[in-house]
Amino acid sequence: MNSFFKRGMRVFTAALLGAAISVNVVAFMQARAMTRFTESGERTARPEQLSSLETAAIFISGVHVPRPQNTRTPAAFDLPFETYRFTSENGATIEAWYVAGKDERLIVALFHGYAASKSTLLAAARVFHELGYGTLLVDFYGSGGSSGTDTSLGVEEARDVAAAVIFTRQKWPGRKVVLYGISMGGAAVLRAVATEGIQADAVIVEATFDTLLNTAKNRFHATGLPGTPFSELLIFWGSLQRGFNFFAHNPVDYARSVNCPALILHGEKDERTTPEQARSIAQAMGKSARFVAYAGVPHMPIVQALPSDWRRDVSEFLARVL
Q: Distance between CA atoms of 86 and 254, rounded to whole angstroms?
């Protein structure tokens, strides 16, 4: 009986060890797939759109994210534009489109989200243009016309934000500079203010997560999987691969360094970041921030979901900035 018990314990221990190794291997592959773009292929669908079988397959193999490309230019909206390139401190060559505005007092620099490019910012840029403001649409390194093939989920991208601000102030001196970032772009904007010493005249942050760990948990919840321990393992292995502690990649902490007027925009149905999590970013900024929630809007550009409401809120905010 004692011998049978010992054999059973050995089998149980081996199975437990095998499961732990398997889960960590999967987490390692997931982290690698999320931060390294592929050259081609079809992007993995949103978690909410996957079947149970597809979720299981993706859980094992990792997501497939092709390198983001620009699918159109400002010309698609009849907006004359110029293309500029400058160097980021991370060594990447950054490409940006500039669309002039009638009001030369202010320019808005726009930064896209994860696995996207500056062409996804065109709808917002058109509204800024209609309001009279010049815009600079920026590709993060690894996306669109910029160099590179990977992403750091807003960490290294903060240096691209800093480079864009320096370029803007040199190219168009005397103008107020407003930083607009959506999702990961918002995280990069806030990190640039906190760690790169960037001084903006105002910031607009939309659909941005409070902590990387929380948004990872939300993503797993969307697939029907438990957030813990998978999220922690994903962040752990991503940190080792990238050489940065992603547990410390928290826009809610960066937000405390913002001392300029700020507008925080968020959809009430955002499945990537809850309104409460987004509201914490505004609370961290204090009295200088205004939080606006939009009923029924998921994780998407709010300008596309509720264009008139978005235009009204942004217009009022920029008028106060001026």
A: 25
